């Protein structure tokens, strides 16, 4: 994996994270990490996760009640083998959300501690934010919380990703208030400073408070890596977010991203 800083002095700085074409070894490893994290998150404390994992590692598909228990955790978005679903384009979109989530969870920024990270939902068509993260930062006299609302897209075609970035920024501008309202409701019972942030979240977003911000992430093919100015249009759609650090972009580039997403699905299916 390679990280490349892009346009660091722009109003909307962005980063490129690319996975090397090394004959498929790194791709396979990342696909497995996503599948494993997804099943662990979905299954929670159910025995379904361990049964699924043991079956995949042993290359011995489940049967009977064990398979029956695992299937409901695999089916949303990915469908079941051998036919899957009629909306295969949802698979790359959902895998892109999980890439953003795992990269954000592992991100190491000096002075920033991850305080809250919303995992992807079970549906790419569910009304709500694609990504939401809160960081606790060390200030001169105390610590404070900052948040970012993310829109996450995939681009598996050829040519420029600019239209996809514009679509994401437009969606944040049009529906951002609705998204943060749902997030504040879902997390209203959190204790301490996180609970206080949730009580103020919608107001902070509406007045473009410096503690809030927005991000656009696009997962795509390595051949579609954009130019340095790719995110320059984002401030046009979110003109009130003018404070340093309020806007951010991310490109995750994987060789043949659609095939990579299918590889994730293959790991999920291999226990069934």
Folded structure, characterized:
With 272 residues, the chain is an alpha/beta fold. The chain has one domain. Helix content is 44%, strand content 19%. A 7-stranded mixed β-sheet has the order 1-2-7-6-5-4-3. Strand 1 and strand 2 form a beta hairpin. The mean pLDDT is 90. This is Anti-bacteriophage protein A/HamA C-terminal domain-containing protein.
Number of beta-strand segments: 7
Q: Order of SSEs, N→C? A: EEHHHHEEEHHEHEH
Overall pLDDT confidence:
90
First-last Cα distance = 30 Å
Low-confidence stretches: none
What gyration radius follows from the Cα positions, in whole Å? Answer: 19 Å
Helix content: 40-55%
Note the main sheet. Answer: 7 strands, mixed
Query: β content, as a range?
Result: 15-25%
SS element count, helices: 8
Shape: globular
Strand order of the largest sheet: 1-2-7-6-5-4-3
Structural class comes to alpha/beta
Q: How many individual domains?
A: 1
Which features does this protein show?
272 residues; 7-stranded mixed sheet; 8 helices; globular
At a glance:
The chain has helices at residues 25-43, 48-58, 64-78, 90-106, 162-186, 192-206, 234-237, 257-269; strands at 2-6, 14-18, 112-117, 131-138, 143-155, 214-221, 247-254. By secondary structure, the chain is of the alpha/beta class. The radius of gyration is 19 Å and the shape is globular.
